[in-house]
Each structure stands twice: as C-alpha cells, then as structure tokens.
Amino acid sequence: MLKHVVEKGETLAKIANRYGVRAVDLLDSNSFIAHERSYVYPGTELLIPKSVNSTFAAGPFECLYEYGYTELLLDRNRLKQQRVKESVIGKSVMGKEIVAFEIGSGEIPIFYSGGWHANEWHTAKFLMTFLQTLIEAEVSKADLFGYSVYELLKKVTLHLVPLVNPDGVELVQQGIYPEHPFYEQVLAINKGARTFDHWSSNIRGVDLNHQWPAGWEKEAAESPQQPWPRHYSGPSPLSEPEAIAIYEYTKANDFAYVLAFHSQGQEIYWGYKGFEPNVSKAMVERLSLMSSYKPVHTADSDGGYKDWFIQETRRPGFTIEVGVGKNPLPLEAFGEIWSNNILLALEGLTLHELM
Fold this sequence. Notes:
The chain has about 350 residues and is α/β, with parallel strands linked by helices. The protein has helices at about 10-20, 25-30, 70-80, 120-140, 150-155, 165-175, 185-190, 215-220, 240-255, 280-290, 305-315, 335-350; strands at about 1-5, 45-50, 85-90, 95-105, 110-115, 155-160, 255-265, 265-270, 295, 315-320.
C-alpha cells in the first residue's frame, strides 16, 4: 500500500479523491479512523489502498470534496493565465491571504463575497465555479443560460472575494491539533469539544458578519460576551483583520451594489431599517424570480456587512442564503446551490439597469 502524510487543510474526502479511492476505503485501511467525517490532522500517516480509478471525475457542477484555502490557492494559480485580475486585499488572523478577483472592463463596479462563516464553505466553491464559468463564456463569446457574458462584462466590473474566513473554514474541515497556533484558545472557546461543525466564527471566535458598525452596539449586547463559536460580535466593530480587509476594499472601490453569499435558508435579505433605496425592492424581485429564493426585507439582527453597506452608502445590498439544511451542508448540496444560484448570480450583473 502507498503511504500518505496528511497535509494542512486536507480531509478524508480530499485525500480519497486525490488517490482515486473512496473515503470508506481509507477507513478500511486505517482502523484508527472512526467514520467518514473524522478529522485527519497534519502529520498523520495514512495507508492508501490500491486505486480502482486513477481519479474520480466529478460530473458537471458536482462536489466530491470540501472547498477551502488550499483549493482557492490552486484555482488562483490556474486563473493566472486567464482574463482575470487578482489581488491580495488583506490577511486573516493566521496570515492566510484574502484574495480578490476582478473580471470585466465596465464602469459599474459590483461586489460578490462568500466564505464569511466557517461552516459555509459551499459559498466559496460556488463563487469560484461561477467565476470560471464566466471566464469561459467571455472567451468563447457564447451565451450562458441566455445571458451574453461578453456584453455584460463590457458594462460592469465584477469584484469577487470567495473566501473571507479561511482560518475558520480550515478549522471546520480539519479540526484542531496540538501544533495548531490557536490550539488552546480554540479548545477553550469550544469548551473542550473537538468537533466544529457548529463553528461559524473566525479562528479567534469572532463572527465576521456581526462586526460591522450598523447597529453593532445592539447586536453585541444581545450576543455572547466573549469569544464564541458563533455570534460573538467582537470587542469593537471591525476588530478583526478579515473584516477590516473587506471594509477597506469596499471603501476603495465604490461598489454600486453588493451581494454577500451565506448558507442556508433559500432566502434573500435586502433591507436595513429603511436605509435601502427604493430600487432595492425591484432588484430583489428579479433575484427571487431567477432563484426561487424568498425575499425577506429585514433579518432579525444587526451588525452585518450588508446592513453596514446599505446604511453607509444608501445603495442596494443583499444577503443570499444558499441551500437548505444544517451547516455545514453536505457535499451533495452543491448541485442544488448551483442550479438555484447561477441565474441569480448572472442576473446580479444586470441589476444596474434598474438604477
């Protein structure tokens, strides 16, 4: 049998796909692994059974393994030769790069973001798959589900940050281990528990979508008062480097409107305390028609990125809650997320026509 030493960011599903075996085959060959969702920590040596396939080929818009920071870096390298600009807009608590992509040459800047919460990695995969699909359609000048991407991208410039919270996503996917620089801090926040499916915060236990100076004091008063797996607003607004990176990027680019992708619920939040412009209602109705997702004017919370953007700019902002179920959504949820959101994301490139 082959031997594989687990690397940072790997999961059983990722390793199985790499060697063309099933995750259950790895369980059979490594008796210390309890089940297919078990964490495998960096430095662990796994026995790899003989492969039946050289690799498992994913079908169109199928997800065979989790998407995280390692996958983002691989995609980033693949995109270097294509028609997309890339920049590093900041770094996470642990020093991971927060990467922004830019496609299009139009005068209207639009911003899509995802991977805000640690157990919502599907949004990062969706946005990167969407970006690659846009590139292919622009190069071929072929229509994409009835949309002329080539013409759309002459009118707008799409800015895209797929993974706002890389440290948190890695924690949910790989767990915690003694060599991890936040080992003791994370275990203290998690009260000693070593499973992290419920974790949505960054690595310091701050919820990046409760960090924004729009009703922050109210949200902070009603949320946990210390670092927590979810909903802790932080010691102050914009205390976390990931939030600061998005704040500065938003300020620098004067976006016409923004779409922040989260999971789950199949809903679209579009208002904040009446600060949103009148056109937001017509815009969300178009997004709803293209996705079957339910428009909801106001979420029962404050301090979100969309809330701040609307209050700060008086421009349209939307939170898209993709998928349905319990986070982290299973691998097979990606098909539904793609089918219900590809037209929404394309329609998002046309909403400026209503302004």
